[in-house]
Amino acid sequence: MLGKLTRGVIDPRFITFALVGTTGLAVHLIVLRVALDTFSRSFSFSQSIATAVAMATNFLLNNALTYNDRRLSGIGLLWGFFGFCAIGAAGAITNVGLASWLYSEEPTWWLAGAAGAVMGALWNYSMSSQFVWRTR
């Protein structure tokens, strides 16, 4: 329906991907808080744990929901996860790079942050669709 309303400009699968990403943020923050309280370790250690859990959660949810027609299984699931993590790292670099550049040009933090997040999400979605959950 969304695809018809936007005449194909917005892929409905992207909306699901973005919603999964939003749940990933919630998972990340919850795990970060628990890790900080439980392990009494540094922020970096807790942030690393939270990032790993959120990436795994996002991957599994995207595999089950966003790409249910291309669902990975067996060894393909493991390789897909590694690819998803590599793409996510590149998306984060893209996000931060664009947001930092925009902020240096126009220091409106929320605008720069949102633009970076959207660019990162578009990168992650397009690369995941092409390389992780490609049509077999």
User: Which residues form runs of ≥5 with pLDDT under 50?
Assistant: none
Query: How can the largest sheet be summarized?
Result: none
Computed CA radius of gyration, to the nearest angstrom: 16 Å
Number of strand elements: 0
Helix content: over 70%
Mean pLDDT: 87
Q: Any idea what the shape is?
A: globular
Give the termini separation: 25 Å
Strand content: under 5%
Order of helices and strands: HHHHH
| Main structural class | mainly alpha
Helix count from the secondary structure assignment: 5
Describe the structure.
- With 136 residues, the protein is mainly α.
- The chain is built from five helices and no strands.
- The longest helix has 31 residues, at 75-105.
Question: What's a concise summary of this model?
Answer:
The protein is mostly helical. 82% of the residues lie in helices and 0% in strands.
Features:
5 helices, 82% helix
Q: How are the SSEs ordered, and which strands pair?
A:
Layout lengths: L1 H4 L6 H28 L3 H24 L8 H31 L3 H24 L4
Helix pairs in contact: 2-3, 3-4, 4-5
